[in-house]
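Moderator note: this is an archived Q&A kept for reference. The question asked for a predicted structure of one protein chain; the sequence and the answer are reproduced below.
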Amino acid sequence: MSLEPDTAGRASIKDVAQHAGVSPQTVSRVANGYVHVRPAMRERVLASMRELGYRPNSAARNLKSGRFRSIGLVAYNITTLGNERTLEAVAEAAALAGYTTTLIPVADPTSGNVSGAFGRLEEQAVDGIILIMSAELGSPDDLALTAGLPLVIVDSDVATEHTLVDNDQEQGTRLAMQHLLDLGHRRIAHVAGPDRAYSARRRAETYGRVVAEQGLPVVEMQRGNWTAASGRAAGAAILDSEPRPTAVFAANDQMALGVMTAAHERGIRIPEELSVVGFDNAPDSDTYWPALTTVHQNFDVVGQRATEILIAMIDGEPLPENPLIPTRLVVRASTAPPHQG
């Protein structure tokens, strides 16, 4: 079987996968020396590599040490609170472990853009990659994974064999909803984040499950784009509806701030007439009027854990299970039992 490489003079992992009749993930595992590949399949992949003249990555030029002590970071939307904190934590953890980091921002989270970023990192000779997408990437087969490079994915729902690290979005949402339920609220509205965002989708889905499990009245969900302005617009739609909800769970603190602004504009007292819960525990959430009850996400732990796992993979240690980092509820002055009368 003949196959032309998709780049001039050089075969890619996709070329090898197609030639051998396997997935790109299998080629990556063979190239990286993972043992959990059937011998016959391994031989088929190696034969395709030889026939196509495929070389795993630029690390092959450094066979003597086998390490560059460098980690690549590919991230979408790096200015959000969570991604910014996660990137900082990765850089700090990598530095403590003696690794440098190289960041390539991705303006649009398409598989082609991510693949291009992987290729650039491969040329810069990194030992592994941490991918921070916070948005849907599609099928894992669409990702042209860099051959031989360990990969850890943060904040994504891409269906892949690669290790995922994230805050526990479902647990955090259930903490927020249970708090409102314990206070006696039944009519609870939700301001969701962008549908393409993994964390927003998980929070919205969990909110819907809690509503169904508890037999709560169904309130039309409003959607924002993480900004306070979008939360204000969503809050206006919620508060102008009848019957008006007694509580709002917003998918992040900025949108919760917008909901509170909409309430203040209508003379609705918080928390006497409306309880509001956010998500993130942003640095200024305790200065909102009133101070915001919210779910604390451990972005620093996510970054540290992702770095630790990636370095373990680089060193050939056993792959850990996909970890979810627990969240916690921070109760402040924006929530109270529903107003009577």
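Archived answer notes: The chain has a mean pLDDT of 85.
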